Structure formats: structure tokens, C-alpha cells
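Kindly go through one protein, given below as sequence and C-alpha cells. The question is how this chain folds according to its C-alpha cells.

***
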Amino acid sequence: MDCLDGAPGKFRNFRKDDFEADWIKVPECRFGQVYQVKMKLWREKCALKSFDTSLCENSFYSRMIDEAPKIAKVKFKYIVSIYGLCSEATAMVMEYMSNGSLDNLLASHTLMWPKKFQMIHEATMGMNFLHSMKPPLLHLNLKTSNILLDDHLHVKISDFGLIQWEECLNKKKFMEYLMARGNINYIPPETFTQCPEPPGTTFDVYSFAVVMWEILTQQKPYPGSSVTTVLIQVSHGKRPSVDMMPDHKPRECDQMIRIMEQCWDQDHRKRPQFSDTVRKTETLSEVLKIPGAIQPDRGQKPDYPWLVSPTQKIALPEMPDLPSDDQHGRDGILSLLSKKDFDSFRQSVKREHTSLLFSDKNSLLHYTVASGDAESVQRVLSLGAEVNCPSARGYTPLIIAVLHRLHDIISLLLEHGAAATQGDEDQWTPLHFAAQNGDDRTVRLLLDKRAVADAREKAGWMPLHLACQNGHETVVRLLLSRLSEEAAGEREEAQGRTPLHLACAYGHLSIAKLLLSQGADPNATDRSHSTALHLSAEEGHNRVVRTLVKSGVRIDSVDSRGHTPLHLAALKGHTGICRQLLSNGASPDPRTLQGWTPMHLAAVRGHEATVLQLESQGGCVNARGENGWTPLHLACHQSQQEVVAKLLAAQADPNVTEDSGGWTPLHLACNSVNFPSVLQLISHHADVNAVNWGKATALHLAAQHGCVPVVKALLLNGADGTLLDSSGSTALNVAQRCERGEVVELLEKKC
């Protein structure tokens, strides 16, 4: 491997003398040792993770040499960066994470609920990124010890891609790999079976569910249980006890638990993808995002299931594998279908075969329809097969034909009396499936056979809802031609969403225009009082927002949490939509139920361009929200240094104090160890000796965290080291108590 340029971000093979001599040993991992080292060239701390080749497989490090350059290319906010290898030390050189592993933190600190939710969401973000790569990058080693924490306790995923399934690797060997690394609690049940299939993305989803449980409970799963006991219990569906959740959990925790339970479902096919989970955890983490400022909602927070398309809810009916051998009797008939020997099948099939039920109550007609051969279907029907017989899940042969888009067979079944209105166990009719799939030809066939255009499935969805959500304009037009004006514009599903809500949430502009032209009410609200404008503004659909604004929508309508469309656009950083809403008369400073303005929400999420846009169109940079927090307070608390700079340039007050503890933005910047923001605040005349209600100065907080650059900056700008906090301690006393050696030495010299 060539030694590349020494700049950070370039993968290289380091030598031992590239690092300063003082290697600091940090807690051992199972297969090696981790050191904190300092790069001579970069003057930056790194982590050197060495591997004990006597404990690892002989091929492990050589394979890591091959894989590391690929892994190093993975760059993302919630992924630990890999800089290169150090072959002399049989080690990987990686980003240094000052607060160690999540495993250690959960054991040593009691976390507040906002931090727990934040960590779950950030871990989901990291895993979603890995799985979104093509092909997906599987972790296969996800556990709390491989989730690391930076200076501000933000999460980053590490050790991904080091364990791999190879074609020559059998399941027993793979299990040995995992168990040797102490992963038994994180291994999904399908890994214990005889199924030879390699692990997929659902393996990591299961592991993540156990990580979620550990974060929520701050406990270890299956305490005192042997490896064998865990294997047996998990294979029989047992999971860590939900009863171990703390009693004082917020309401939102129940929804987080439901996500967790879906992720560790016994059937790996039912586990959600991270692309689904990341949206739900984001929604939940928003409620508890700001520790000490935002409290849980007063009412039950609405779940937003429509952000996960029902397309993922319904899969093709699972037909059991057909026999491959030419056996006698009932299986012999199925084997002919399996071989696609349709001539022999039509000659061999008899009337008595048509009444047989196979796996999951599938009839011979179900299998014949799934085979796709219309002549064979005709033959089975001529022998008296029941055309509307349902399977165990309620699928009729017609539904099977609709799902497979077998138009000739659909026509054939309808001619023989197939019921166009008969639904499955969830009351999904053939028309629902056809509308969801955008199959306009089938929709026409079904409507001509008196399918009910406004039929509702169990959750209240009409075919029109599904077509609008999935962007099938031709199907929407067909359905509208059969629906009354009321049904087209105002009929809602169970969560109160109209077809217009769904078209706008998913950005289907032409469908939104069509619905509005047919009389859809742009001001209709769902159960959480959201309008179509709320949904399109939150999702960033500029053209849809423009269309709704022109249609006469109420631009400042509020949802159940007091959010206007401007709040949601600001929260997501959709600057263009904010500009559009404000230009069309939106109030620049509306308040949520917690008192937050759009400026607050843009600041807490680090959207500096949005902050500037709001300020330029009348937004107040010094608005005080709950407990008197200003946007500058929030930006300092969340270490959003670019937003801090923009707010100060826009005349934000650096010396305003919040109401619950008397903290200034400088206090919060020091508490978050945000050095650039500290410098910005000082340059804008922040009072370095301001005290909070505990009489602590910024210097007290900087000393507590051991941040030498911040301490130096404060001292150079007049910080008084003799001031006492409410416990009678100077900053030096605080540094001594917290064992911050470098700060102690500095303060002793200066004070």
C-alpha cells in the first residue's frame, strides 16, 4: 500500500514514528488494544486499534488490509472515520472518540430521556447510511461497545465491515466468529437455524433493537444467562423484558418501544428497514430534543404512519415451494406446474384436485393462477374450482392475479364470477392492490365489473389514497371518474388524511393540482390538525407548496403541537420554502405550544441559511421561547457554531440570560466545549464574568470540562479566576476536583 499524502481524509499506511512517543492505553477490546496517539504531522489525536493476531484468525488482518481502504471511503457524520493502517503495529488508525463507548457510558451515567432518544436516532442515522450503500454495507457486529461517543456525546458507529460472510464460510463458523466476540445477545434467531442463507440487512436491524433496549433501560439483557440459555430463549421468541423500562418514562417511549419490538420480530421479513425507522426515531426525538428546554407534549404525540408507504406493508402472497419431483397424487399435480409442463398438467388434472387445500389454505386454483398460464386456469375453472376461495390470509385467486399483473387471467376469473369486491384479511380489495401498483389496465377491468371505487380497507384507506400516495396519476383519474365530488375531495382514512394530504406529502404535484381542480379542500386537516401545506412544507416539496399557496390555503394554520408550515420548513432547513411562505404573508414569529419560533427550530438544527432567510424577512433573533431560551442559547447548547456566528452577525444579544438557571449563551458554549462559538461570543462582547444562578462563570464550566483552549481564551479576555461559585469554589478548585491536570497547571500560573 502506497504512503499517500499526509492530509486528513487520505488513506495511508502509517509508520510507528508518525506518532508521538506517548501512546496512552485505553480500555482493552476483546481482540486487541486501543491507544490514544497523537499524529506528529496533523497535531491531532487519533485512535490506534491494534489486533492480537494470536487471538484473531490468521487471515483476519490480511483481509482487513484488503477491506480497510474501502471502509475508509465511508464518510458520514454518524460513522467513525478510518484514516489508514499501521502495519508495523498490526493496527487500524481511526478517529479518536473522547467519551469512549456507549457500553461504558450506559453503565456509569444515568442518561436523561432526551439524550437517550437522540442517541437512538443518531445510531439509526449511521446504520441507515451503511445500508443505503450499494450493495448495503452490513455491520454484523453492532452492539453498544461498537457505538462510540464524541466530545458532545454524539453517537458514531464503529467496527463496521470487519466481520463478513463469505461463500466458503458455513453458518457454524460464522456463529463462532460472533460468539467469540461476545455478541450472543445481539444475534437474531434465524442465525441459529439450519437455513444456509447469508445474513442480510435484517441481521443488523435485530442487533439494533437490542441496542435500543439497552439505551432505554440502561441494563444488560439476559443477566446471568448462559450462552446456551440465550440461544434457546431467543430461538423460541423470548426477548429482553420490556417491563424493565423505568416507570417515569415519557409517553413517547411507548412508541419507541413499538419500533424496537418491530425490529426484533421473530420473522426477519417483518423487521423494518433502517430507512423506515430513521423517520420514526427522528419524529420522536424532536419532542425531547432540547434538554432542559422542551418538555414532552401535553397530549399523545401523533404517529405518522403515512410516511411509510403501505407499498411496504403488502407483499406478494407467499406461495410454498412447489415439489420438484414428479410424485403421485396431489403433489404430482403441483410438480407439473413447478416444471411449467402445462400440457401435462392440463391432461392430468382432475375434478377431485380442485377441492384440495395445500399449505396456508392455498387451493389448486391459487397455484395455477400464480403459474401465469391462462389455458391451465381455464382448465381448472372448467372442472368446477371455486373461483372465490380465500387462502389463510384471505387472498383470492383474483388478488393473486392482480398482484402479478396477469391481465388475461384477471379477465378470465372475472368472466367466471370472481368477486371484484372481495377483500383479504385486512379488507384490501383487488382494486386496492391494483391502485397501489399503478396498474391502470386492471383498474379499468375491475371498475367495469362493479368494483367499489371508494371501498375501505381496515385502516380506512380507499384505492384513491393509495394511488395518490404512490403517484399513479392515470389511476387517480380513473378513480375520480367513478367517485362523487365528496368522496374525491373530502373522504378521509383512519388518521384523517385526505387524498390531497397524501399527494402533497409525497410531492406528486400533478395529482395535487388534479385534486384541487376537482374541489379538494386545501384546508382540510388530519387528526393532528395538519393541512396538506404542513406536510409538503416539512418534506421540502417547493412546487407543491407554491400550488397550495395559490389555491387559498390558510398559510399560518397550526397543528396539534402549535407548528405552522413555516415552523416545519425551518426545522428541516427548507430555506426556499421559508422564503416562499414569508413572501406570501406567513407570520415570521409564530409560537409553538412550547413557545418556539421558526428561528429557534432552525437554530437548534444548525440550518444557518434558513436562519439568515428568516431574519431577512422579519424573524426575531432575540425571541425568547420556553424558559427564556433564545435561538442563540439553543445554537450554543447544540454546538451549532455556524448558526452562532450568523445570529451574532444579525445582532443577537450575547448576554441575555435564560429563566431557569440564569445561563448566558457563553455559559452554554463552554458547557458544550464549543471553542469556535466561545471565540465568536467573546468577539461580540459577551460578558466573560457573568454568573448563573449557581454563581458559576464560564471559566468554572470550562475548567470542569478540562478544555484548555477555552480556558486560555477566557483568561486572555479578562476572566476572573478568583470568583467563587455557590459552593465556594474557584475555577482552579473545580479543575482540581475534576482532575483536569492541564487546566490546573494553567490556572495556577495565571491566577
